[in-house]
Every structure is written in C-alpha cells, then in structure tokens.
Amino acid sequence: MTARTYHVIFNANAGTALATGITEAALAQMFASQGLAAHIDADASRPMAERIEQALASPADTIVAAGGDGTITALGGAMLGSGKSLAILPLGTVNALAKDLRIPLDTSAAVAALAQSVEQQIDVGEVNGRFFLHKVVIGLIPGMAAGREHIRTMPGVSAKVGFMRYFFRRLARNRRIAIAIDAGDTGQPRVERVQAVAVASNSYDEGFGRFFARERLDGGTLTLYVLKRFGFVDFVRLTSGMLVGRWHQDEALQVESVGAVTIDSHKGLLKVMFDGEIETLATPLHFTIRPKALTVLAPPALAEAPPPDQALPA
To answer: Which helix (H) or strand (E) holds 256?
Structure first.
C-alpha cells in the first residue's frame, strides 16, 4: 500500500493554536516524527480560497485542515468530488466534527493517529449552494454567538462573567421570530413563531453528557430542531435534560427528520450560525443533504462501527 502524502492548511489564528502557541515548525516536526510526508501551508497572508485551490492542485492525496470548524467547513466543501481525502487536526475552540469523528484533540496525538486512520464517507448538508458539515442555526443562537465573539477580546474571567451577563440579558429581551417551514411532506409550508431553528446533517444523540454529539454521520438525512420558546425556566430544564441525556422530548423543542426543507422569512436576509461561524444568508433557505459525499480520515473504531438498526428516511 502506497504511503499517504499530506498537504496541511494551517490556521495559526484558530483558538487552540493561539492558546497553545503551535507553530509551523512544531507541526512539521510532529509529521516528521511519525514518518509522514507533509507540506505545511501556513501562509495566512493569502486568501483561504487561494490556499485551498493550491492544495487541491497539489499531488497530495490527503488535505489536512489544521484549524477550527470554519477552516474545516471551507476545505470540506471545496473538496467534494476531488478524489482526495480530508483529514482534521482540531485546533479550534469547539472542534465539533473532530469530536464526532473521535479524533484526538491533542495535536501531536491527532498527527500520530493519521497513520492508523481509515477512509470513511460522511454526509454533507447544503443550503443555497453552500456546504455545511454539522449545522446551520437561525434565531437566538447566532445573536448569542455574535456577542460571544465580541466578549472573547476581554481577558480571562472577565470574558466568562461578561458573556453570562450578556446571555441572560439577551434571554430576557429575546423575541420569537416568524418563519415558514416547508418540509415537503404536505406541500404547504407551516408558519411558526420560534426562538431558534437548527438544521443538522444527521441527528444529535441523547446520552449522559453528550452535548450536540453525533454517533452517525452517514444516515442520509437532515434533522430539523425547532425551539418554540427559551425563557429562563426552559433554559434550565433543557440544559439539565442534555446533561442527563433526555432532551429530544422537551416540551419547548420539536425534532423532525427530513430529506429536505425550505425555511423562509419576511426578511430578505437572515443572520445564521453556519458551522460555528456567523454568516448572513438570503432567504428562502433551501436545505438538502448529499449522502456520503465527502471522504474523511477517521480512527478505525468509528469507521468500523456497526450500521444503525433502522435506516432514517432519505
């Protein structure tokens, strides 16, 4: 079997990279110590799109996203149909997809795991021609995330206290938004007044301490999460339910598996959280799923997991 070659797109400004001080030289040494042939692209002065184009044109068979969820999503979407595999070195703050794939969060351990990783095909969500790898959220959550990004510039404990104050102020003042949801089952959209709506590639599991974690990434379905209300009592109850692993049946939440869904609003533009990044998208939002469209490298334990007992609807 021919040894893999790696082209690494390194985002030195990602959360973990900044916190730990990982450098291009340190990353190159990690690959060399494992006997892995890698070219490290750490040139942050060039646009990401240009760096991705160069990576796709390179002779490497595996492109490595060494960064946060934004870097991974941008690279993953561009790689569809390229014939190359995506590998992940989780250097962001949340690292959602890396956790789902059970990739070690320690950088040196993640590099070492590449040699034993195997290919797996995962689903890719699509909204208005844009690709996402975990979820798109509309409503309350993007506003919270925008505040978080501003407060992150504050030092240490001040940031945590500042965010909690901002969170509860926003929670007290938050108003529901009106949207039209067409899941294609009745032919007629239904109008809902909601606090937030999330569309996820596949579904988030219930289980003790499993916060927004997905066991399966290749079920071929979207999951629609509609949060009807989110007052203080709802926040406490829903958070407690997540801790103990029983939240899908919460009275404020509606969960639905769909093959495709369209979400519309009287607003021409909606602020969304797009795989962890704040974006503005034009309405209506047309969501579909591309089953097993992206090849990723994952530890063997995940790739060899048994298929689900019951197939989800496409």
So the answer is: strand 253-258
Looking at the fold, whether 203 and 250 belong to one and the same domain comes out as: yes
Is residue 122 in some structural domain? no
Q: How does pLDDT run across 95-106, given as a tens digit for each residue?
A: 999 999 999 999
Tally of residues, the chain: 314
Strand partners, 283: none
Domain range enclosing 24:
5-116
CA neighbours closer than 13 Å in the CB half-sphere of residue 189: 16
Pull the structure tokens for residue 117.
């990783």
User: What is residue 258's predicted lDDT score, i.e. its pLDDT?
Assistant: 95
Determine the 3-state secondary structure of 182 from DSSP.
strand
Do 139 and 283 lie in a common domain? yes
pLDDT tens digits, one per residue of 10-61? 998 888 888 888 999 999 999 999 999 999 999 999 999 999 999 999 999 9
| Interatomic CA distance for residues 47 and 105, integer angstroms | 26
In angstroms and rounded to an integer, the radius of gyration of the C-alpha atoms of the chain is 20
Strand order in the sheet with 196-201: 253-258, 222-227, 196-201, 135-139, 269-274, 277-282
pLDDT of residue 241: 76
Residues of the chain falling short of pLDDT 70: 1-2, 141-174, 185-187, 209, 301-314
CA distance 292 to 99: 18
Do 112 and 153 share a domain, yes or no?
no
In a domain, 300, yes or no: no
Helix ranges restricted to H, the chain: 15-20, 24-33, 48-57, 69-78, 96-100, 107-114, 140-151, 156-173, 232-244, 300-303
Q: CB-hemisphere CA count at 13 Å for 157?
A: 0
* Tokens found for residue 193: 């007044």
Q: Cα separation of 264 and 286, whole Å?
A: 9
Closest to 85 measured CA to CA, from 111, 127, 42, 122: 122
**Counted domains in the chain:** 2
Q: Tell me, yes or no, if the pTM score tops 0.85.
A: no
